[in-house]
Amino acid sequence: MGRKKCHRSIHNYDSSQKKKIPQIKRKEISQQCENLLKLCSDPIYTTRLWESYLEISSILEKINRLEEMRMATTTPRAEAIMQFIEWLKSYGAMIEGVSIGEFAGFDLGIKAEKDYHANELVLEIPRKVIFSIETAAPELSSIANDPIIQHMPQVALAIALLVEKHRENSKWKPYLSVLPRTYNTVLYMSARDMIELKGSPTLEVALKHCRNIARQYSYFNQMFQSNGSSNHVSQILKDVFTYEEYCWAVSTVMTRQNIIPSEHAGEMIHALIPMWDMCNHEEGVITTDFNINSDMCECYVKREFKQGEQIFINYGSRTNSDFFVHSGFVYPDNKNDGFKLRLGISKSDPLFQDRMKLLEKLEFPASNLSFLLNTTSEPISDQMLAFLRVFSMRKFELDHWLESSKVLDLKHRDCALDTVVETNVRKFLLARLKLLMANYPTTLEEDLKILKTMMPPIGKMIVELRASEKKILSQAIDYVEQWVKA
């Protein structure tokens, strides 16, 4: 269970002080959204990722300028936290042994108010205050047949957040008041930030994610404007829905979402778990579960914590690329880290059909072949090795293995193959890894020096990601070089 990071200053928007965007601007915004939807849906995006991203960003800048019509009031952080704690207690949450505190490098986190032993119960959060489409925003049922709402539960949860945020006298106001107003996710990065990811496989993932969110925003903007009185969600969000608001809602869900049992037996739903989602990440065992009998989320400490220390939880096994794009942080010395390596067979290869048939026998997918270089002493997985063997075989070897009943032996590291094939595998892989390292505009040593300087959080996070990827590549290169010599 888990996902989150980055608590920022708390800004409570007072719906009574919002101004409506003038109709003339709304018309211009709608036109820009139409352009945005076309651009985000254009298949050429896949071959012109960076150029399309810049075009999308340009349109979004125009939309942001047109949508800047809100006035904000600010709730002092201490007051918001106090109201939040009282709200949780009023619904029966068990939070007596902890508090919300500030920690260097994390902003807000959960602070131990007593000593805790490993596996000791620390939090119990009842379903009544767990934010989901079952407990919040009943208006969502009015657009339940929308294909995006139906098939993308994270998006449905983001829209539910906005409904509750802009509803007068929402039950969830104390929780919404302690949520960050901005995040370090890629949605908050500029083109100048993004270009610093040049050479990283994470850049493609980040650009596609930004494209998807821009497309969703333009889709919902058109829905809320054209169906302003036909459904309850549009009635609430028509005058207040903006790209900035949607980025906030999506980032809140991305960084904090969890999956819990539904009230309906056998189903699982996405949800936000107040207070528990204030815990920051640390590697270790996962010690959170949902107790169906008590209808509560129960969190046990994963190790010993002394009074005054920050209590951490484990968000699960994710690479730093995943954390970077979806949670807005990079975890130092991540034991679950990996470098995504995309490989494929060229259709111009005279043996393309034979190679693809053999890969099919080995149960590889027909397309989107990618492998993960890991941080262990064996960075090359058996799956990757099997693919490289097929990639390097000659005609008679392909014929042999296509007829063999022991084709799965190719996935075994000690499978006996012709020396020429094994040599070609190692030489190709070494050349490919060195090329990937050379694609970065900076070296690992340069990045490590940059990290010792003062820099903004997002800039630091980008360099941390680059450094973590280069460490994996460097380790893999050393491994293959020794392999070649052997």
Automatic annotation (TrEMBL):
CDD domains found in the cross-reference section: SET_SETD3
Any GO BP: methylation
Residues in SET domain copies: 96-316
Keyword Transport (UniProt): no
Primary localization: cytoplasm
Reactions catalysed: L-histidyl-[protein] + S-adenosyl-L-methionine = N(tele)-methyl-L-histidyl-[protein] + S-adenosyl-L-homocysteine + H(+)
Keyword Glycoprotein: no
Family: Belongs to the class V-like SAM-binding methyltransferase superfamily. SETD3 actin-histidine methyltransferase family.
Protein name, UniProt field: protein-histidine N-methyltransferase
